[in-house]
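Recall that a protein's primary structure is simply its ordered list of amino acids. Everything else, from secondary elements to tertiary packing, is in principle encoded there. The following example makes that idea concrete.
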Amino acid sequence: MKNILVPVGSSPNAVSHLQYAVDFAKAFGAKLFVVQIYDIYSKAGTMIKVDEILERESYNFLKAHISKVDTKDVEIHIKTYKGKLVETIESRAKSLNIDLILLEPRTNSVKEEVYLGKTSGRIIKQTNIPALIVPEGYVFKPIIYILMALKSAVIKKDDALKPLLDIKDQFKSIVNLLLVKTPFHNEGDFDIDEKLKPVITNTTYTENATTFQGVLEHYKDNDPDLLCVVRRKRGFFNKLWEKNTILKKDFQSNTLPVLVLSGLK
């Protein structure tokens, strides 16, 4: 894991999140790209230099936040971009060879009942970049136990498991697999792929309406340091994808990081 992208919003948790990002990057010897994306709409009479002003303000905003954390000699690049959120993140992630996005659950929401705000929700929902959602105020610690929840263990993309493997290799993690049989179960879904077999220590089988419900039923028993799920059209956040905002009452795992892999197929 070499390049990590950290979008920064206006949340009061931004400094804490940046410190986690620095600590995480330090463990891997990775570079951090700390970014803010702004967007304006042209109107008659708008100042010609408004872009320059916003770019300067965004840069100074990021610089001020970074000054409040212990950077631990991690290489940090500050980037400001004008554009639409999802499109800009996707294009920049590609050009910067980003391996992982570190996200706050709520980049600008102040509603206590919200787990995943609109901005983070859109990034998770509408991009296909591996992401790590870090709970607010969460302090970095080695990731020893990982619970991976899947409804299908079939893997067709060669690099789909890379973020998980990088984390496992770095921390010598123990990965336990939760296979959830849903109404969309197909024959062969529980045939664990040869790429995945060497990674798994224990496997649990359950039957639930969704992978999400299976996780809610079992993740506390596993007491993991990290929950690993897969982004699919009908995957972990299945019904939650109807809206970009996800409530804490709908997803109660707001006390541990969640690694969201890109689709396996």
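Confidence is low (pLDDT under 50) at residues 107-115, 237-250. Helices lie at 14-28, 50-66, 85-95, 118-126, 162-171, 211-222.
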